[in-house]
């Protein structure tokens, strides 16, 4: 099995999706999502308050951008937002096969 890149796949889907779906009535949809998780091995996981659960839970946070039109929709970008302690723990990130450029986002970060 060969190596693959999530970013390269995302770029391929974005390019082919915008070619196939591009039209004047298309829109970008931005969604911030939180995933409740069990364990400690997922990339960017942390204990944070969860409004859905009403208490502090182990979870991931991510933001997703998709393109949608009346024809169909496609994911165009996504990013995990790890807690500060997770992003600073290089050994933990490597063990979880996390991206090399993972960082704790601060105000003003894209």
Structure description:
- The termini are far apart.
- Strands 1, 2, 3 and 4 form a 4-stranded antiparallel β-sheet that branches.
- Strand 3 (55-68) and strand 4 form a beta hairpin.
- It contains 3 helices and 4 strands; from the N terminus they run H-E-E-E-E-H-H.
- The chain has 110 residues and is α+β, with helices and mostly antiparallel strands.
- The chain has one domain (6-95).
Give the biggest sheet.
4 strands, antiparallel
Report the average pLDDT across residues: 76
Helix/strand/pairing category = alpha+beta
- Assembly state: single chain
Give the terminus-to-terminus CA distance.
33 Å
Helix fraction?
A: 10-25%
In one word, what is the shape?
A: globular
Strand content: 25-35%
Which ranges are low-confidence, i.e. pLDDT below 50, for 5 or more consecutive residues?
none
Number of helices: 3
Backbone CA Rg = 16 Å
What order do the SSEs take from the amino end to the carboxyl end, as H and E? Answer: HEEEEHH
What is the number of strand segments? 4
Number of domains: 1
Which labels suit this protein?
34% strand; 3 helices; single chain; four-stranded antiparallel beta sheet; alpha+beta
Short account of what is shown:
The chain has 110 residues and is α+β, with helices and mostly antiparallel strands. The chain has helices at residues 6-21, 84-88, 90-95; strands at 27-36, 46-50, 55-68, 73-80.
């Amino acid at each position: 099995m060969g190596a693959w890149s999530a970013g390269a796949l995302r770029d391929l889907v974005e390019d082919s999706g915008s070619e196939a779906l591009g039209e004047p009535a298309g829109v970008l949809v931005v969604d911030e999502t939180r995933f409740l998780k069990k364990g400690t091995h997922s990339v960017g996981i942390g204990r944070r308050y969860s409004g859905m659960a009403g208490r502090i839970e182990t979870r991931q946070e991510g933001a997703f951008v998709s393109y949608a039109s009346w024809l169909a929709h496609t994911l165009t970008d996504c990013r995990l937002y790890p807690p500060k302690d997770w992003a600073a723990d290089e050994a933990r990130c490597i063990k979880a096969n996390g991206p090399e450029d993972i960082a704790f986002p601060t105000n003003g970060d894209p």
